[in-house]
Amino acid sequence: MSPFGKAATFSAFVIVAACAQNHDLGFQDTPMLPGLPFHVHDDRRPHPHVVTPAAQPGGAPSDAIVLFDGKNMSAWISHHSNITKGGSTGAPEWKLENGYMEAVPHTGDIATKEKFGDCQLHVEWAAPPEIVGNSQARGNSGVFLASIGSGDAGYELQVLDCYNNKTYVNGQTGSIYKQSIPLANACKKPGEWQTYDVIWTAPRFNDDGSVKSPARVTAFHNGVLVQNNYELKGVTMYIGQPFYKKHGASPIKLQAHGDPSEPISYRNIWVRPL
Exposed end of the chain (fewer CB within 10 Å): N or C? Predict the structure, then answer.
């Protein structure tokens, strides 16, 4: 074979290899995807951004906003509570010790300084180890996925000690308060750390204030699915019918309920805006 023949053979091999490699990344000789400007195997589609997972389960991934890491409460402000009548707009009055923060009796709620829309939220909490009270008066708190005004205006994922403790089912641990009963009771014993992992889809509103699309929530309690893409009927109400009013991005809030049991504790809180 002449040198030119060898060169031509090598060039053809490179071209074929390159085509095969590109084919692995996608190709365009396939039908168009309905409603999208791409083919079924289109190599022009943008790739997802890379996120580095945490070294330990439950840790914050590389693109998360850490709201509480056990060192300080700089991401939070005090928030007025309709229940305890405490709270203002200053620094949080909760106690910080040993890597967790704890609600202090007769103080207010706490809310994030930053506002969020759709997000992935991770929260760890522990009911007090001493069993005092029953039903709603035992380790009561709440994670407000969006706090949209004073007091408890917003959308609450209930926190409660429901380990061998019965209460009304749409107010137990893992419920969307007074709206959606949890799919399971996954409570650990009082004093043990528990996790919420939540996917929150915020509501959308038209210019006239009407609902364009309602809020939705999927939630896992200690790894167990308790809310499966539930469509909220509006804000969570203690008494009365839920309703929507137009709002935008909102703080995340933790409730100081003020029941007679010992205070609730929180740690390792992070959020990924979606």
Answer: N
Tens digit of pLDDT for each residue in 120-157?
999 999 998 887 777 886 778 999 999 998 878 999 99
Distance between CA atoms of residues 257 and 238, nearest Å: 13
Residue 161: C-alpha distances to residues 121, 168, 185, 194 (Å): 21, 13, 10, 11
Structural domain contains residue 59:
no
SS3 assignment for 142-200: EEEEEECCCCCCEEEEEECCCCCCCCCHHHCCCCECCCECCCCCCCCCCCCCEEEEEEE
Structural domain includes residue 54: no
The domain of 69 spans 65-273
In a domain, 151, yes or no: yes
Q: Which two tokens stand for residue 180?
A: 């959606």
Amino acid at 76: W
Q: Rounded to an integer, what distance in angstroms lies between the CA atom of residue 230 and that of residue 209?
A: 22
C-alpha 72/C-alpha 68 separation (Å) is 7
Q: Summarize pLDDT for 110-121 with one digit per residue, the tens.
A: 999 999 999 999
Residues 13 and 107 in one domain: no
In this structure, the number of other CB atoms found within 10 A of the CB of residue 197 comes to 17
For position 167, which CATH number holds?
A: 2.60.120.560
d(Cα 157, Cα 79) in Å, to the nearest integer?
17
